[in-house]
Amino acid sequence: MKFLNLKLTVSYLEHEPIFYDRVEPTPLHKPFLISASQNAAKLLGVDEDLLLDENLLEIVNGKKKLDGSETFAMCYAGHQFGYFVERLGDGRAINLGKVNGQNLQLKGSGLTLYSRQGDGRAVLRSSIREYLMSEAMHGLGIATSRALALIGSDTDVARERWEKGAIVLRLSPTWVRFGTFEYFNAKGEHEKLQQLADYVIDESFHHLKNKEGMYLKMYAEIVSSTAKTIAQWQSVGFNHGVMNTDNMSIDGRTIDYGPFAFLDDYDKDYVCNHTDRDGRYSFKNQPGIAHWNLGQLAVALSPIVNHDSALQVLEDVFGEAYEKVYSEIMYAKMGLEQEEENDRKLFQWMLGALGGATIDYTLFFRKLSRFDGDKSDILDLCVYRTSLEEWLDSYSLRLEKETLSTTSRHKKMLKVNPKYILKNHILQEAIEKAEAHDFSMVNDLLKVALSPFDEHQELEHLCRLAPMESKNIKLSCSS
Ligand code: AMP
Ligand code: MG
Q1: 478 lines ligand 1 (CB under 6 A)
Q2: pLDDT single digits (tens) 338-368
Q3: Does the first or last residue of the chain, that is N or C, have fewer Cβ atoms within 10 Å of its Cβ?
Q4: Which ligand ends up closest to the CA of 165?
Q5: Closest ligand 1 atom number to CA of residue 256
Q6: What's the gap in Å between 279 CA and the centre of ligand 1?
Q7: Any atom of ligand 1 within 6 Å of the Cβ of 121
């Protein structure tokens, strides 16, 4: 199937106009295609070579429409850094419609009713980050919105310096956010809130339709899918950076990539977002913030879901779902298959030892996936060796209780401990090259992003460690 032959539907527009702004994209000047993800295109049933499709560029630039497409921005509210903002909405994202269960959305395609003081644009730098990270998150097996194409342009966009405008074509089974419910609740629009809930059940929780207590059941599923995603973030060392309720997808997937970062050296207190002075969205706070955000969602749903019941569900489901997923992944990352009494202690000791050793989180686990008793390979990566040396001695003893052969253990561990994650200093290099019109690194990164557990020997420079000066740096929110 060719991209141009897709036929879209736009059921969101069946709601009253308070839900959205019907708006046309504003095309960029002199646009050019930078990259396209064949892997994401498969979700739509598109199998042509996208780079050869002469229509893709015009569609992403908003110059040409797909069949059935009607464009609109969605309205939502949200808690930003703990404070409620009664109307946010897609300030620079424009929806095209839906096909194959995926909602197509352009990010950076101009002003909407919800742009407030913004210009409706996204710069090349942040668009490369969103494009690659969407695909990388998928490659890591974590639920996320996807990115099908990235275009650049000659349109000037003012940020701290002049930059160029870009657009990412994003896909998601839903673009409804916690904040979408908060919008209607805050306005006292209870009928519309219920309409939205019915829409969300149709779109994302169809198996609950017409079941008794379906809204509470929907909430319980949102709680558990959110907990799962956050547990997965923690396991790979991902710091989202802007966990406002308007950036929380109603189906728990990761959305809205801004100043995100992966941990370099393991540091649980790391805060990737430069504007987050209090560290509200620090790495270690992410599970607690997700819980808080889910509490806000319970408030927003209170006209249709008994608040006490929702809070009870939150308490019953979140912690257990989070712990289950997190511990399963972490024990797999450690190569522990048998359950032993002291495993939890060994695990907690490991995190403490990692913190004390000053060692790259991702590389540690990749090296551990080949650990055969020779500690030097790992210890040589540490600034301070003692804490991890003692831990590795204990870990070696613990491994003796495993029944799997060393080779089989290594093989399994290499499938859960990625070699490639999108480190900021690598992304930065790709961005600088792209700003000079060399897009090769963006495309190389796409390749490793989609299969991060494979060796890709020819691309090993893409998993280089961060140089001292850019380790665990903070990123500006401007995008
Ligand atoms: P974010 O924290 O990036 O998710 O953005 C928060 C809100 O600001 C959302 O409603 C965005 O659509 C909006 N926004 C961010 N950047 C811009 C921009 N350049 N122009 C218009 N709206 C924007
Ligand atoms: Mg957002």
Answers
A1: no
A2: 999 999 999 999 999 999 999 999 999 999 9
A3: N
A4: 1
A5: 4
A6: 21
A7: yes
The pLDDT mean for the chain works out to 97
Any ligand 1 atom below 6 A from CB of 91: yes
Distance 421 CA to ligand 1 centre (A): 26
Query: Where exactly are the structural domains of the chain?
Result: 3-172, 339-401
Contacts of 450 (CB under 8 A, 6+ apart): 37, 39, 135, 136, 138, 139
- Is 316 annotated in the active site? no
Residue 252's nearest CA partner among 206, 280, 290 is 290
pTM (2 decimals)? 0.98
Tell me the two tokens of residue 310. 């929702």
> To test the ligand 1 pocket, which listed residue (88, 159, 479) has its Cβ within 8 A of the most ligand atoms?
88
Q: What is the pLDDT of residues 194-214, one digit of tens each?
A: 999 999 999 999 999 999 999
User: Torsion angle, CA of 430/431/432/433, rounded to 10 degrees?
Assistant: 50
When pLDDT is cut at 50, 70 and 90, the band that residue 474 belongs to is confident
Residue 475, pLDDT > 90, answer: no
- Which tokens in the block code for residue 353? 């030892």
- Set 53, 246, 264, 265: catalytic member: 246
Longest dimension (CA), the chain: 66
* Residue 109 to residue 107: CA distance in whole angstroms: 6
Complete DSSP assignment for 198-254: HHHHHHH-GGGTT-TTHHHHHHHHHHHHHHHHHHHHHHHTEE-S---GGGBBTTS-B
Give every CB contact of residue 78 below 8 A, 6+ residues apart in sequence: 84, 85, 88, 177, 178, 179, 182, 244, 245, 246, 247
